[in-house]
Amino acid sequence: MRTLTRLLPKLAVGLVMIWAVATFTFFLVHALPGSPGDAAYENYILSGMSPEQAQAKVSSIYGFTSHDPLLVQYRGYLWRLLHGDLGQSISYSGVPVTHVLRAAAPWTIFPALAGLVIAFLVGTSFGAVAAVKRSSRWGGLLSMSGSFFAGIPVFVLALVLAFLFHTEWNLLPYGDTSDVTLTPGFNGPYVVSVVQHAILPVATYALLGYGAWLLTMKSSVISVLGDDFILAAELRGLRPRTRMRYVSRNAILPMFTVFALSIGYLLGGSVLVENVFDYPGLGNVLFQAIGARDYPLMSGAFLLITVAIVLANIVADLLYTVIDPRVRR
Amino acid sequence: MTDTAPQAAAAGAFAAPLASIASAAGSAASAASAASATPETEVLVRDLTVCFRTDRGEELPAVAHADLTLQAGLITGLVGESGSGKSTLALTLLGAVPSPGRITSGSVQLTGIGDVTRLKGAALRQVRGGKVGYVFQASQNSLNPLKTVGKQLLDLGRAHDVEYLPGLVRRARELCELMGMDGKRVLDSYQHELSGGMRQRVGIVFALVLNARVLVLDEPTTALDMLSQAAVLKIIGQVHKEIGLTTLIVTHDMGVVSELADRLAVMYGGRIVEDGPAEQLLRRPSHPYTRALINATARVTGDISRARALPGRPPDLASIPRQGCVFRQRCAFVMDQCATEEPPLDAWGGDIDNAGGSGRRRACHATPEAVIGA
Amino acid sequence: MTTWRVLTRRPGRVIGLLILALFALMAVFGPYLYAGPLAVDPNAIYSAPSAQHWLGTDFAGSDVLQEIVIGARYVLETAALSALFAAVIGTLVGLVAGYHRGPTDSVLMRLTDFVLTIPGLPLLIVLSTIWSFGQPYEMAIALGVTGWGGVARAVRSQTLSLRERGFLEAARGLGLSSRHVIFRELLPNLAPFVAMNMLLAVIAFIGAEVALFFLGVVPFSSSNWGVMLNQAVFSGGAMDSPAALSYLLAPLLCILLITIGIVLFLDAVDELFNPRLRERS
């Protein structure tokens, strides 16, 4: 019950945030001078359509025409959004934006999630070691590696990995999701090829998240190690293993904020990762849409990335509530 | 209670007349003075020195050549200002030294265990919590906030290889009831659901649930309000008597130990400067520091106009004099000898009206008569 | 003097400072060192490093070292300006939120959450469709306005912990005005902390601006490292020809070096402001 009362405001904030982003993209795309809707309309007129035809065409793409009052346009946009209708893509001539996004989403979500899990496992363990051994040389090096990977720009990482493992050592394939000569489906060579192609993007995502996990875990463990109850556990003769469990469970709590931040970072970085590795995910869709001035697709992709991050925040909060009794009751 | 000590039963008849200060737990104290006739040693600290190494590589002693005997069945109070080394000394009973300190000489003998400073690993773990129960200075925060008290109790049981865990739970509930708490409720609670005084008592339960023979309480009342303080003190006295423990109370507050303790040891600058039976020491302090400490505590003298603040500040590790008496800079009885020669902690005949066998010791160049009579 | 001792305790920290100094010098004096336009030599396309071209040449035969040195000013100037904007906005928001608490705090923190939640790079890319912010100060405004969330949150929590220490109550008890308390009491105490966050922001902003040029979504107003990377990867075919190694790696290594420099230097700053770390090392 308490969980619900705690979660509801978060949900409300998330919804407001999604609404705000939707409104932002709406005004960005439709209401600014030289709106793409107007431009498209004029193009259709120039190409010989009648004004009615052109208006109908624009309306089918954007969901309204710029001849309506702004408020009507906005209401129409939100109404369609509520029904999961993001309009039609221009560059994929007439395909609904949702279809394009649905096809692209797995190529972002799975590599990013795999990278997130790896980064979490490695980052938190190394962070704990870095905290316990913080006065030794190894501890120092580990923290340094955390700061380094937390600071290094996404594309630098992606390019260096691609250059080293593909161009220089020729160990791994690079570009696209699999070998194009293979038939997609559940057959051995194709699956192997997909996995091989995924290694570098996943590694990039993992290294991207690693630093934040390590650094936060380190400072969290240091602060828990200084807590009285850990000393108490030692002086009550608890086993070192039990004490380590006490430390890790208490230290892991602040990690949920990193989870949310990390998701945002990874999804934001997907534009670059997918660009370098030529991966057909959401980031790449967003990038291509901008190149093609495909505004419905652009705002759809941007909105979806934001929604994913908002949802991740809510999930993180839910997990936090489950693990911390002080919040639960 | 299966463990009731024989000493506690022999209470009463021989009780020396108590000073006005001994009150609620007076019966415990009288039991103890009776027992002191046939002292049995539970803990024996010999020549213990604990040093901290500084950045510059110097070794600074937090405890220097301390000798302390805890007699079975008695409550001993270890009194001193913060930084006097009293907590460090108490921790060595568990074979623990706060880092970066280390024991450079001496031993801590526990009856039936041996020298605890030489123990390691599993053997040391068994002493901690098993033989010696320790209640923390910040006992309110001595519990894992993410686990119920009961689950932490089970962790404790497993760590000490308790074969029958339900028995442990029953014992914990008994102890809870003994301290005036609802055992079942407490075990089902998280730390944040308990009040400060309750957490303190849970700390005592954890210290005793494995049938520890020795109970060490580090500043048991500091963080509590006056009412909880009184309640916790009363409980400590009761539990001590009923279970027949050997108890060490570490405190800066003379008032706390004056009500409870059978014997007192006073620490200053890492040295034990005086010890002996509590009421003798309180009535006739023979060391200038003890005297000043008692005079500074209005609650002990009962007369606020007679309370005297001690001039100067307590020394920290770096400012303790390396030579001579550690107290001389604040001492009213200082003489030339004090600057060069550190006074040894010597047995002293004792009180004028209770000569012989009192077990009093003092470390001072001034004569006891001069200090007591002043 | 503690500062100096902490800095020199580990050689890495001095190295970090030296790296940062080197790049700062490059940004200030680089353009004077190589005055005039970039020389193009069709006979020396992708030539290997030599005495004449220390880092080799690019696809048009231009000297890579010269491009790096000239490009440093844009990259660093923009990053520094962005960090300054972000620090100013973030500090103001964090300070006000932490000082006033209550509803002001809630509103400002929701706003901060909002800024933090919206993914920075996609937002900038989307923004680039309506505003081509290629000039250094324009780029800095775009980055600063979208990137102050982290600073604001950090400053707020620091402000709250300063409150805990009670000297705010003391200052107000003396009848000092809010403005005095904020600017005279809080800000000086926060300054080193803000500086630390600014250094961190510089790393992030270098990444972001170079990424935007690398993706090619902002117009190439001047030669800089991002433009170099874009041309190397997308038109220079550097990913497939090992001969382009130095052209591709030079800007990447510069960014890595700056990152390392800041990280090494921050290690010292961190120890200065986190006594808990200082205690044991």
From TrEMBL, chain C:
InterPro entries linked: BP-dependent_transpt_permease, MetI-like, MetI-like_sf, OppC_N
Ranges for domain ABC transmembrane type-1: 72-266
Membrane-crossing segments per the record: 12-34, 79-99, 111-131, 137-155, 193-218, 244-266
Any Pfam family: BPD_transp_1
Record flagged with keyword Transport: yes
The UniProt record lists the keyword Membrane: yes
Family statement: Belongs to the binding-protein-dependent transport system permease family.
Protein name: ABC transporter permease
